[in-house]
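Protocol step 4 of 6: record predicted structures for both targets in the notebook before any analysis. Target 1:
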Amino acid sequence: MLNRVVLLGRLTKDPELRYTPNGTAVVTFTLAVDRRMTNQQGERETDFLPIVVWSKLAELCAQYLKKGQQAAVEGRIQVRNYENKEGRRVYVTEIIADNVQFLGGRQGQSSDESYSSGFERSAGFDGGHSRDSFDDNPFANDQRPIDISDDDLPF
């Protein structure tokens, strides 16, 4: 099974930092992500996705991310439910982030920083602090098909 999501969008407001009773940091924010396709009026629709970040990465997000700033988030989709005060079952879908890259900020700020949780480091990824940006991707913003033979595919 695979549950991975990668998002690129802008924060709709400053992150909200809280701590659990045992002292673990948790930050929440909403990421506005434009859809690729336009609607009938030629406008792009936007999805507003709730992001949850835990521990040290949460504290870094609270310190460095601000409303309007662009960020890339990698994580997993989680659906949880609870019973509200009226006795109704409420379902919540959110993204649990384990890697956040702080991209170019508002009004000419330029801060491409990447931070990961311990999951990324333990999984063998380049966790921690990285200066890589999406500009290094040779396929970024290129809508042409990739010329590759079936013999080159591993599946």
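Target 2:
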Amino acid sequence: MGCLLAVGAIASAYFMSLENPSDWSTALQLDNRQIWIQAAGRSLCQVASGLIYFYIPLVFVNQVGLSATSVGLSMGISSLAGIAGHLLGGALADSPRFGRKTTLSLSAGLGVLVSLVLAVTQTLPMLIVASLLLGLSVGFYWTAADAAVMDVTLPESRHQAFAIMSVAENVGVGIGVLGGGVLLTIANQRHELLFLGCGLIFLAFLIMVQIAIAETRQVTTKSHTPIQGFLVALQDKALITFILANVLFTTYVALVTSTVPLYFTNFIPAIGATPNASLADTASLYTWCYIGLGAVAQLPIAQAFTAFPRTRVLMIAMLMSSLGFCLLWVTGRFATYQYWTGVAALCVMAIASVTYKPFAAAIVSELAPENLRGAYVAVSSQCWAIGYFMGPLLGGWAMDQSAIVAHNFWLVVAASTSIGLLVLRLFEAQREEQRSIEAG
């Protein structure tokens, strides 16, 4: 109920703040058809991939019987495969022969294959194979999709476009998590049907790419080979510094996505604390308080911070992440109001996530030359690959330990945000120096 009230309050405040129709057009990019098509595609894609990431730990630890550490390792391997997926996806997305559309099609096809493999998986080696394919699929998708959004937006409104993408992502993940819980219940916990459903969704996304999504890669007089493009990006000191800060952000997102549901299910009495009793309860709480609140709050937050320096917005998101992890520690250590502190932790982490995502993507678009957007997105996206390797691996290890280790793990994560703040300040100084050189 608390989450629903928060969602309603934020939505009401946002809609009341839009005084005339032109505000709606500015806030929602209503005149940009490709933004809405890409948003629909992202939502559809995230129904499947979000469901997979959410249910892999719960299904393969609590139903198949693998250890949390081994499942975390397999998800970490998926992220390592994502490194190759982002780099190869960036090369394909910038290539005149392939471009954004073909790369998205390859991502969808790999997603279908991942779902089929997961449907028959009962052992760790098979889970690792599925994880490798998933990493490639995710890498292809994000590199091509983000480059396509940059192609069709202006710099001043780009963070709002990425905010719409984030809303679509949250809506898709929310539908996937809730729908997966319902499907598992109907199918008597048979996870094979869950993953076969994911395959059908990826197939629908593939059809949508072929029918509705346009090729947005822009032909320029400047051309680089893929290796040259990556070298240019890797020599950009500001980009590399920004990636270092983003590794922490993405690790936090990965922890909330993969580890917090398992923590709530197995360690928090007010929510579950038994392996099989509360999958639906955890999924519902996670969906409303993290995904649902994030979806509703995304556009208001993007609009509210429009006038702020984008690096400072990320610093605010970093501080909110610290608060969220401290609340997770409070949830585990104190029995009083345990359910509500868990709700508060998810809500704070939701706000931190949606504050971070659109402004981080907009900063990358500022750094990227027009003809190297795929390469810059590919290089910057390595923070997601690294974060989704570190998050599940560290979180899975912590969840295999005693309750005291699992609880105090969140305090250590909260303390790490101080490093992120220092790196963001260094990035801000580098950007100021670059602007001075360009102006002088």
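Step 5 preliminary note on target 2. The chain has one domain: 27-214+225-439. Confidence is low (pLDDT under 50) at residues 1-30, 273-277.
Proceed to step 6 after PI sign-off.
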